Amino acid sequence: xxxxxxxxxxxxxxxxxxxxxxxxxxxxxxxxxxxxxxxxxxxxxxxxxxxxxxxxxxxxxxxxxxxxxxxxxxxxxxxxxxxxxxxxxxxxxxxxxxxxxxxxxxxxxxxxxxxxxxxxxxxxxxxxxxxxxxxxxxxxxxxxxxxxxxxxxxxxxxxxxxxxxxxxxxxxxxxxxxxxxxxxxxxxxxxxxxxxxxxxxxxxxxxxxxxxxxxxxxxxxxxxxxxxxxxxxxxxxxxxxxxxxxxxxxxxxxxxxxxxxxxxxxxxxxxxxxxxxxxxxxxxxxxxxxxxxxxxxxxxxxxxxxxxxxxxxxxxxxxxxxxxxxxxxxxxxxxxxxxxxxxxxxxxxxxxxxxxxxxxxxxxxxxxxxxxxxxxxxxxxxxxxxxxxxxxxxxxxxxxxxxxxxxxxxxxxxxxxxxxxxxxxxxxxxxxxxxxxxxxxxxxxxxxxxxxxxxxxxxxxxxxxxxxxxxxxxxxxxxxxxxxxxxxxxxxxxxxxxxxxxxxxxxxxxxxxxxxxxxxxxxxxxxxxxxxxxxxxxxxxxxxxxxxxxxxxxxxxxxxxxxxxxxxxxxxxxxxxxxxxxxxxxxxxx
Amino acid sequence: xxxxxxxxxxxxxxxxxxxxxxxxxxxxxxxxxxxxxxxxxxxxxxxxxxxxxxxxxxxxxxxxxxxxxxxxxxxxxxxxxxxxxxxxxxxxxxxxxxx
Lengths: 590, 99
Hints:
The complex is a heterodimer of chains A (590) and B (99).
Chain A: H1 7-41, H2 44-52, H3 54-80, H4 84-121, H5 127-139, H6 141-156, H7 160-184, H8 189-203, H9 205-211, H10 228-287, H11 289-299, H12 303-330, H13 332-338, H14 344-357, H15 361-376, H16 380-393, H17 395-408, H18 414-439, E1 455-462, H19 465-468, H20 470-481, H21 486-506, E2 513-520, E3 524-531, H22 552-559, E4 562-568, E5 571-579, H23 581-585
Antiparallel strand pairs in A: 1-2, 2-3, 3-5, 4-5
Helix pairs in contact in A: 1-2, 1-7, 1-8, 1-10, 2-5, 2-10, 3-4, 3-6, 3-10, 4-5, 4-6, 4-10, 5-8, 6-7, 6-8, 7-8, 7-9, 10-12, 10-14, 10-15, 10-16, 10-17, 11-12, 11-15, 12-15, 13-14, 14-18, 15-16, 15-18, 16-18, 17-18, 20-21, 21-22
Chain B: E1 2-8, E2 11-20, H1 25-35, E3 42-53, H2 55-71, E4 73-77, H3 81-90
Parallel strand pairs in B: 2-3, 3-4
Antiparallel strand pairs in B: 1-2
Helix pairs in contact in B: 1-2
């Protein structure tokens, strides 16, 4: 039996690595750059003010991010079923819902800014600066909302390059304007928020290119049925839960830290949180590949593929975290200076706290990985429990206890706070382990079986005709070894040749490797063919010919019991089933 | 694949041995084009030693059947159980004359 070639999965991981990191960048970089620039040009007070406005930022991002993610997922599924009108309906509904809610935020900016700023930042003595930041952010909410929504839809339409272009443009503009506004104008924290908004606005030129693209599959439609909105809401629910948890975490931590340690403690926490965001931009982007790929692998029952995917993403992520820990341990002082912290006492406290805090990163990453992974394999209860433990249950009491303990020992409490982050992440990881063991006693963290169901043959071939003819031979031999009747084996062999030849002839230059899996189970035999060539759905392909013509795909349809197809991450995944009922009823049993 | 030719008056018999797949189907196609002269009235394809047939092979059989419809008849014989099963599933039993 051939050893499975991991080339196709690895190629996909590498292809989606940069867009994955870019997506993470879009969510984090604006905040990090704002914090660094504000810290350097406006001082620690302003930096604290921006950090205290994060709960409001989360609320502003919520419609665009939740409905964008949910809507794009729902539209992607509909496009896979060739339901373009429905996909466009989801797009139209989510677009206008986000636009209306964002405009509402803009209007509310004139009425709620002051009370919000007082509530969030009065104790830290920076309510005015926080209010300035919140006001401009709320005013520019339509740009944020529509920007986040469109980035998700670009992903659903297989335009990761346009997503990346949008994110690069908006972040470069943000960086440039931050520098101009904060250094050369008296705008203060208003300037930091304005540069972020203008970055989002200018980046939207990319959407014009997308709107004029002839390949575009989704567009505006008149009066779509409102029931389609439910699909987007359901699909976006996990993101909503995550953002709601983030909101509670940000609000809770800000309140505890400001109340017990004052502005200095908040400044130290802000830098720690930004370090976490930087690491998450890279490692979170890598882990972000899991929901895209693991879902399809799980759907195909390709447990081997899932393990390859998880091992590789964990490897890459932990390399990034290890490098980050080493870098920060060595250059701790320089990192504090990057955020504009130069006052010796505060800097000394921050260096000590940072060196403790960074040891929470490996555990944080592990918990994030588990959440992504369990969501992908439909273990949503496990994922939700870990999300809740990580963002609410442990961190808030741990932060409170850590600060009080630190102060009881004569310190400022910030080291206790840093230690609280490690404890919360470790407790989350241990609790996740206990929860899993209670639910699945003998399983490892994958939960899934180590081997695919049934007896499996896995191999990959290069996309050439000489290689294609080897595929049916391999399949026949494997079927013979495993007691499949020759007639059934022959049909699977024929189908495999047709599919591989079709990929080689029409798949285009990108189709370089073909993954073949044959799974022999008691009731049926499943042949899975995966390639990275041009999109082609054999299940929906119809060939009109007379009785004296024969077409390969039509033949495959005739000789198989079922064909399923899914296009994910630029790969064609075709599963062809052959019933074995007749064999069972016949003379030979497997 | 090995193709053995036998001509007796206006009857051409081609005995196929091995695998009739994507790579070997053009060989049979060329052989038929080469040997199927205007005076051939009957084409017999002997599949006794044929182990496997793909759609490329079926396509060649169909093309030969089309030609022979114009100048005589074609008979497929001695197909093994596996290949007969393919003819059944694909509906070729209704198109070809199988003995």
